[in-house]
Design goal:
This protein is of the alpha/beta class. The chain is built from nine helices and 13 strands. The relative contact order is 0.10.
């Protein structure tokens, strides 16, 4: 068992719930150089990460006394990825009571997300809804990938439509005609590179584009 002095540093992130979502977050944070404290009530899930992370504990995050024994004084950010709705809500509430400044929480529904916000979650993520949205846009508008912001702005990856082939971006008028900005180009067998007005687009290129949702849909529908 770790003591309060042993666990935590100013760069420590707490990840609660080590299912697929939590494991992915913990691993990526660790790769980015952030010290991670992972906890889950399931010993099997904890064992799966024990060889990758220095601090992984079997613990019920809804138990305030158990959390107090761990010591969260140096933890400023927490990610709650628990699948159980009631447990995730209680955990967010407890973490905010412990003074953790920034809590990210996974929600399984809009109602779940609203409750998480009400009990103190600073950021709520809807991974299943986001994945479904990306698939829908990919199917309907030939978008390979899609990320939407709250203000109606979006970024997407799309196969270059025929109207852009063998022409520079300035010549094809993508920005003036469609009000879409081509941020970068990925060509098979070549590294990603940022787009310039004189960048010539070829058949099969993947374009990273940004703009409003309607403008992206209009541009992508050419394909």
């Amino acid at each position: 068992m770790f003591s309060k002095q042993q666990i935590g540093s100013p760069d420590t992130a707490l990840v609660v719930g080590l299912g697929r979502f939590g494991r992915a977050a913990a691993r990526r944070l660790n790769e980015l150089g952030v010290e991670v404290l992972g906890i889950d009530r399931d010993p099997a899930l904890v064992s799966r990460l024990a060889l990758e992370l220095d601090n992984v504990l079997v613990l019920d995050a809804t138990d305030a006394e158990a959390l107090d024994q761990v010591g969260l004084g140096h933890v400023t950010v927490a990610v709650v990825g628990m699948a159980h709705v009631e447990a995730s809500v209680v955990t967010v509430l407890k973490l905010k009571e412990f003074g953790i400044k920034e809590v990210w929480a996974k929600a399984s529904s809009q109602t779940h997300g609203e409750i998480l916000h009400r009990v103190g979650a600073d950021h709520v993520i809807y991974p299943e809804a986001a994945a479904g949205l990306r698939v829908a846009h990919a199917v309907a508008r030939h978008l390979i990938d899609y990320f939407e912001f709250e203000d109606g702005f979006a970024i997407a990856r799309v196969t270059a439509p025929p109207s852009t082939w063998e022409r520079s971006l300035a010549e094809s008028g993508v920005r003036t005609e469609y009000r879409v900005t081509v941020v970068g180009v990925k060509r098979e067998g070549e590294p990603f590179h940022y787009a310039e007005p004189d960048t010539v687009i070829r058949e099969g290129d993947h374009l990273i584009i940004s703009g409003t949702k309607p403008d992206l849909d209009r541009f992508a529908s050419q394909g």
